[in-house]
């Protein structure tokens, strides 16, 4: 499952939780079956994780918007302390 906000992308799987700040995302590619996030290692979000095609497309669109708006902004001290 993936969750996004203006500050973070969070990926939750059966054995891990990954939280990524937009500043470290190099690029994003939304494809028919997967969303690829390039941050050094690639985070792949499969379409099958979404209940509908509409949810998948909306998530991809929102992901791109958040990344574009935050990719060159510093991480605020408030966010760092909240993540601990």
Q: Secondary-structure map with pairings?
A:
Blueprint: E1 2-4, E2 8-12, E3 17-21, E4 27-30, E5 34-38, E6 42-46, H1 53-70, H2 77-82
Antiparallel strand pairs: 1-2, 2-3, 4-5, 5-6
Summarize the structure.
The protein has a single domain, classed as PH-domain like (Roll), CATH 2.30.29. 29% of the residues lie in helices and 32% in strands. It has helices at residues 53-70, 77-82; strands at 2-4, 8-12, 17-21, 27-30, 34-38, 42-46.
Q: How would you describe this protein?
A:
The structure is a single chain. The protein is α+β, with helices and mostly antiparallel strands and 84 residues long. It has one domain (2-72): Roll (PH-domain like). Helices cover 29% and strands 32% of the residues. It has 2 helices and 6 strands, in the order E-E-E-E-E-E-H-H. It has helices at 53-70, 77-82; strands at 2-4, 8-12, 17-21, 27-30, 34-38, 42-46. It has a 3-stranded antiparallel beta sheet with strand order 1-2-3, covered by helices on one side. Strands 4-5-6 form a 3-stranded antiparallel beta sheet, covered by helices on one side. Strand 4 (27-30) and strand 5 form a beta hairpin. The longest helix has 18 residues, at 53-70. The protein is globular, with a radius of gyration of 13 Å.
């Amino acid at each position: 499952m993936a969750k996004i906000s203006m500050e973070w992308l969070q990926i939750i799987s059966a054995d891990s939780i990954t939280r990524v700040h937009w500043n470290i995302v190099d690029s994003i590619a939304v494809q028919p079956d997967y969303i690829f996030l390039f941050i050094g290692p690639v985070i792949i979000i499969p379409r099958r994780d979404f209940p509908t095609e509409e949810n998948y497309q909306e998530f991809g669109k929102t992901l791109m918007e958040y990344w574009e708006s935050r990719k060159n902004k510093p991480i605020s001290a408030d966010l760092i302390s909240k993540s601990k």
